[in-house]
Amino acid sequence: MSFTSLGLAPSLINAVAEIGYQEPTAIQRAAIPAILRGEDVLGAAQTGSGKTAAFALPLLQSLLDNRSGPRQLHGLVLVPTRELAAQVGESIRKLAQHLPMQVKVSIVFGGVSINPQMMALRGGADIVVATPGRLLDLLDHNALKISRTAMLVLDEADRLLDLGFSEELARILELLPKQRQNLFFSATFPPEVQALADGMLHQPARIEVLSEPVSKPDIAQRAILVDAPRRTQLLKHLIVEHKWPRVLVFVATKYAAEHVADKLQRNGIRAAAFHGEFSQGARTEVLADFKASRLQVLVATDVAARGIDIARLPAVVNYDLPRSAVDYTHRIGRTGRAGESGVAVSFVSADTEAHFRLIENRNDILLPREQVEGFEPKETAPVVAPASVTDTINGGIKGKRKSKKDKLREAAARAAE
Ligand code: AMP
User: Fold this and answer.
1) Three-state SS at 191
2) Which H or E run includes 315?
3) Ligand 1 pocket, 21 CB below 6 A?
4) Compositional bias (Basic and acidic residues) spans (predicted)?
5) Which residue blocks in 132-253 are alpha helix, DSSP H?
6) Could you tell me the residue ranges of all domains in the chain?
7) What is the pLDDT of residues 287-327, one digit of tens each?
8) How confident is the model at residue 409 (pLDDT cuts 50, 70, 90)?
9) Per-residue pLDDT for 199 more than 80?
10) Domain spanning 3-211, CATH architecture
């Protein structure tokens, strides 16, 4: 199937061709015709599926078909993070570049001064890509009106709720017109996300393409056993040994980010912490340094790293393990992007072995436990029966019920008693 057969205007097809997309991805094939028919859409899709163009192309088409008279907001795209706002906004601008009219796409997010954004919104905008908090601030300042928005897109709805935006979303929904088209995208559907979708969508076309990324990442996953206190030294050893030009290291807390980055610096490695309490200026600067290879190592928390897109990251290290199996997938997805190969290393210690085993179970993987010479662990993981492992650890895994395998294992353990 080609883009031409989806019912898009020639100016959009030209833009797609110029960007270099040969054929539509699964979500684009399914979502574009449904959106063009005016239906609400519930899309289960991850980053990498091509979901941005899946909503941006029909959004632009609808703008093209409907714009007359003075400019008024046609599409509102809500996203969880500043970085995603910038990425999505830029994608829409690129796709709009051959349209026969000037399309104004405004990108607004918090953490920076509101005044330039208010100035930029003067004269209105056709499409606004926003994080919810800043959008509300702008509405409070009368910097824009959303009461006649024709299309609303919620992108990464699960992340929006994870980041605590549910109240802001409710307020925004109140201010939108009742008559509008809703496009709802999320990678996962825990009950609160489902409830939000149910409350917003009207007989939506359901589209699910969780298993088809545009380019299957080529990620070598490794698990290295190491005692917790020796992780920083092992990290340094791996960075030097593998000569990774850039590494994203995940830690659990802001304190750990500062601490590990500081230790690496003292060992002569260009490292910086990256956590949620940075100002927007500091974030931008650190990211720019990392992208330009002035920094070799970024030691980040999950929240800070969410939504950042850094091309060709050769390595990701789980210094602290992620809380959930889904977070594991998100983290390792930072490497091996766009057809490049990458390595994802997880540090596993006696204390975290059972937790890692559970992450493996959930993701249907089983990695050999490696040891690195000079860093062999002295502590060993306690031997626990599989049933009690799942019992004790299950509570620590966010938003996941016991899998069928876990239940079978428990039943088997009970039968053996
Ligand atoms: P997304 O899931 O929207 O974040 O897109 C993931 C990546 O796939 C982005 O780099 C897009 O530029 C790219 N992409 C989107 N649609 C296509 C397509 N039809 N063919 C090839 N690449 C695409």
Assistant:
1) helix
2) strand 315-318
3) yes
4) 407-417
5) 132-140, 157-162, 166-175, 191-200, 231-242
6) 3-211, 217-415
7) 889 988 899 999 999 888 876 666 668 899 999 999 998 88
8) low
9) yes
10) 3-Layer(aba) Sandwich (3.40)
Answer yes or no: is pLDDT of 407 > 60.
no
CA nearest ligand 1 atom 21, residue: 21
Per-residue pLDDT at 411 exceeds 80 = no
Q: Which CATH class is domain 217-415?
A: alpha beta
Q: Which two tokens stand for residue 273?
A: 């912490």
Atom from ligand 1 closest to the CA of residue 3: 19
CB 52 within 8 A of CB 88: yes
Q: Which atom of ligand 1 is nearest to the CA of 23?
A: 19
pTM: 0.59
For residue 139, the CA-to-ligand 1 centroid distance in Å is 32
Q: Do domains 3-211 and 217-415 have the same CATH topology?
A: yes
Mean pLDDT of 264-274: 95
Task: Output the six-digit token pair for 388.
Answer: 């009690």
Q: Is 381 exposed, middle or buried (0-12, 13-18, 19+ CB in 10 A)?
A: middle
Strands 41-44 and 205-208: parallel
Return the structure tokens found at 116: 């330039």
Listed as own residue / partner, the contacts of 228-232 with beta carbons closer than 8 Å and 24 or more positions apart are 228/349, 228/351, 230/375, 231/319, 231/347, 231/349, 232/260, 232/263, 232/264
Q: Which atom of ligand 1 is nearest to the CA of 49?
A: 2
